[in-house]
Amino acid sequence: MIPKIGLKKASALAISAVGIMLLLLLFYAGASYAYRESARSAVISPAYSFFVNVDNNNYKKAWSYLTAMSKKSIVLNIENAYKKDKISINPSKIDKSMKSGGRIAKAYWRGFLKSFNPRIVLKYSKWKIKFIHSNAAEIQINYKYSKQAAFFKLFKENNKWKFGLVESFLNRTILGDIAAKIF
Q: Among candidates 77, 73, 48, which has minimal Cα distance to 61?
């Protein structure tokens, strides 16, 4: 047998149930927003941190934010620049210098800084996430004095977002040109 409750009690229960559902919905929306903002920050951080560290001459730290493909490509560009001068160098020596911020790293990143001012990206550009997928993301960079946007590609490696410097500028030869001019 269904117990009889008064109309006032039923209305109060319905209002309470709706109130609880609204609170749960607000909690879910707030948690969802916090999760999205956390995900956005996790994606933007490697690219932003890369440029901050290059600008501050902390090349060891900057190197840690790059994808494996970018690192491999930069090492290969430096090796090829040495070969053009008929100098043989072991790629592991280049990699070791880049990881430690050694002599080769300093020369490479100083050349990079002669061709590119990171402050343009850090201080004078707007960053907008174009998309975030499970293992790839893209950030649109709008420099305030340019009509053309740049796009930074990021990839998840070992569950961490990494900045694809080479992947972002694959169709450009600037990174290879830097190595060729320096070594």
A: 48
H helical segments located in the chain: 7-55, 59-64, 68-84, 91-100, 103-115, 118-123, 165-168, 174-182
The residues, any chain, with a CB within 8 Å of residue 167's CB and separated by 6 or more, are 67, 69, 70, 153, 155
> Quick count: other Cβ atoms within 10 Å of Cβ 79?
19
pTM: 0.74
Residue % of the chain over a pLDDT of 70: 71
Distance CA 155, CA 170 (A): 15
CA neighbours closer than 13 Å in the CB half-sphere of residue 29: 6
- Which residues face 163 on adjacent strands? 66, 154
- Tokens 């707007």 — which residue? 126
